[in-house]
Each structure stands twice: as C-alpha cells, then as structure tokens.
Write a sequence for this structure.
C-alpha cells in the first residue's frame, strides 16, 4: 500500500512566522504535489515536483516555496505566514507516467 | 469560469436510491477524467477513471460526453457508506500537460 504521511494533522501559527510542512512517501514516486483545499474552491495546486531538486509553480504559488532534496520528501514552506493561508494542506504523490495520485491525510493550518 | 465545475450539493437521498452527479470542464483539450472520493476529514482517493465508452464498477457508472464537455457519475442502490464528497478530476490538455484539475466536489448524504 502506498503511504503518504504529513508531519502534522493540526498546526496553529502566528502571522509572520515561518512554517514548514513536511510530506514523505514510501513508494519511490517521482512526482509530488502540494495542494490547499478551501470550502467552495476545491483543491488548488500550489507547487509540484517531477523529481529530486525539481520544482514547478502550480496555480497559486505566491507566498509559498518548496524543497525537494530527497526523492521521498517534499516540503512546503510559508516564509511569512498570513491569515489568508489558513487552510487544509494536502500533499500527494504519483508514479511518473501514471495518473493516480495518492494523498496524505492533510495538515489543517490555522494562522492567527 | 472555473475549469471544472460541480454542483456542491448536498444531495440528500434515502438508502437504495439512485443518484447522479454531473461535472463540466472548460478545457476541450483535456485528455483523461476521473472521479475521486473524499470522506469527511479524510484525504481524496481515486474512485474510478472515466472512459469515452463509459464504464461501470459495481454500483457505480461513469460516463463522458466530450462534445458537451461533461462527465457524470451514477450511483445505484445507495448505501450509507456512500456518504462522501465526490470530486470530478480532469487531466491536462494543452498547456496543462499532465496536471490534474479538481472540481470543488459534490457532497452526498445517504440517509437510512
């Protein structure tokens, strides 16, 4: 079974703090993704990575950065958290050339 | 206009009912189509792919109408366990490449 884990289920941070969200997958998948999910807006792609050290902007990259130093790990960084970044963050991975994405359990981030 | 649009619901149906969801997409170059299921406070998981000829998996039938750019999901003999949010997902086409675009989801509640 594919397993995608995220470092925290719930996180509360203050405005201006630097926030790290970690995602790890154990199936040697090349592709990894970060989404945020908000009511009425669905899942929106923030960043994705086709392979180690590669990253591409998704639809809403502003205010975020990512790091992929190892194949199994994809980190999302909020350089200076703002209240409009309060959301559910979902990481996903998939094998290159396939279309099924496996999601982690999500991190609910609240920025106060 | 959103790229993938769904009626958010909720659809409240009794057990045993047949229920259908539609989804429309705007990118005529889209290549592949899927339905994902997301249980409350859980991550999305692939339910089924949608093929041009239509496909069935037990009580679930998915259909694609390329001319009208819509996808449907039919659930027969609804079970309480079918209660979830169903996400319509479209892959790429044109500049979107291999990316998946998610609809906002349709919430289904099956009542005893």
């Amino acid at each position: 079974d594919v397993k995608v884990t995220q470092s925290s289920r719930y996180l509360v941070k203050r405005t201006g703090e630097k926030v790290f969200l970690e995602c790890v997958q154990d199936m040697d998948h090349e592709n990894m993704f970060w989404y945020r999910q908000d009511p009425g807006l669905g899942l929106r792609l923030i960043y994705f990575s086709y392979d180690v050290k590669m990253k591409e902007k998704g639809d809403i990259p502003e205010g975020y950065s990512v790091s992929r130093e190892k194949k199994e790990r994809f980190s999302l960084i909020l350089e200076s958290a703002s209240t409009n970044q309060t959301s559910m963050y979902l990481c996903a991975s998939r094998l290159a050339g396939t279309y099924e994405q496996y999601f982690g359990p999500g991190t609910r981030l609240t920025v106060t | 206009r959103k790229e993938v649009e769904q009626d958010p619901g909720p659809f409240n149906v009794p057990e045993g009912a047949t229920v259908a969801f539609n989804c429309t997409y705007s990118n005529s170059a889209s290549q592949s189509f899927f339905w994902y299921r997301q249980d409350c406070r859980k991550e999305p998981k692939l339910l089924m792919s949608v093929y041009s000829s239509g496909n069935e998996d037990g009580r679930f039938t998915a259909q694609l109408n390329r001319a009208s750019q819509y996808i449907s999901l039919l659930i027969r003999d609804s079970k309480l366990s079918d209660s979830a949010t169903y996400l319509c997902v479209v892959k790429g086409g044109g500049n979107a490449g291999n990316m998946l675009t998610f609809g906002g989801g349709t919430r289904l509640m099956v009542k005893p």
User: Anything to note?
Assistant: The interface with chain A takes residues 4, 8, 32, 34, 42-46, 49, 87, 91, 98-100, 102-105 of chain B (CB under 8 Å). The CA atoms of residues 21 and 47 of chain B lie 14 Å apart. The mean pLDDT of chain B is 92.
